[in-house]
Specification:
5 helices, oxidoreductase, alpha/beta, Glutaredoxin, antioxidant
């Protein structure tokens, strides 16, 4: 699992409604990557709406914010339109990036085991180092906490 102080693994992923995003190409801007389980579920929708509501403040602080899940770019597009989201969403349909960040984990629900994305967020500084990592994120107040960390860089 990637944690604070480690180099953020580089990647290139497709974005809904835009060009592919390469993490290293975004330097020296700070980057927030929030990994979430699935488009259009209650917690993921609440989280995406919270980050979207703060996008102007993240941009004013010079930061770029991206949500990442396993869903397709087509599904991301529908999700963004349905909830009027402004946060760009990246598709890791092969789970390669999720695995490299350590967020593709075994889960259990009603006694059934399966693999899925553990809600996690990474703040990456201008040098490509993880300045802060949040694992097993609880949605309420999280986007505000991340914004405060961006401002503290």
């Amino acid at each position: 699992m990637i944690d604070t102080g480690q180099t953020a693994p580089d990647f290139t992923l497709p974005q809904d409604g835009g060009p592919d995003i390469t993490l290293s190409a975004l330097r020296p801007a700070p980057v927030v990557l929030y990994f979430y389980p699935k488009d259009d579920t209650s917690g993921c929708t609440k989280e995406a709406i919270a980050f979207s509501g703060l996008m102007a403040e993240f941009e004013a602080a010079g930061a770029r914010v991206f949500g990442i899940s396993k869903d397709s770019v087509e599904k991301h597009g529908k999700f963004r339109c349905k909830h009027d989201l402004s946060v760009p969403l990246l598709s890791d349909d092969g789970t390669d990036v999720c695995e490299r960040y350590g967020v593709w984990v075994e889960k259990s629900m009603y006694g059934k085991k399966y693999f899925g994305i553990e809600r996690s967020t990474f703040l990456i500084d201008a040098s490509g180092t993880v300045a802060r990592a949040w694992h097993k994120v609880k949605v309420d107040g999280h986007a505000d906490e991340v914004l405060a960390a961006v401002r503290a860089l």
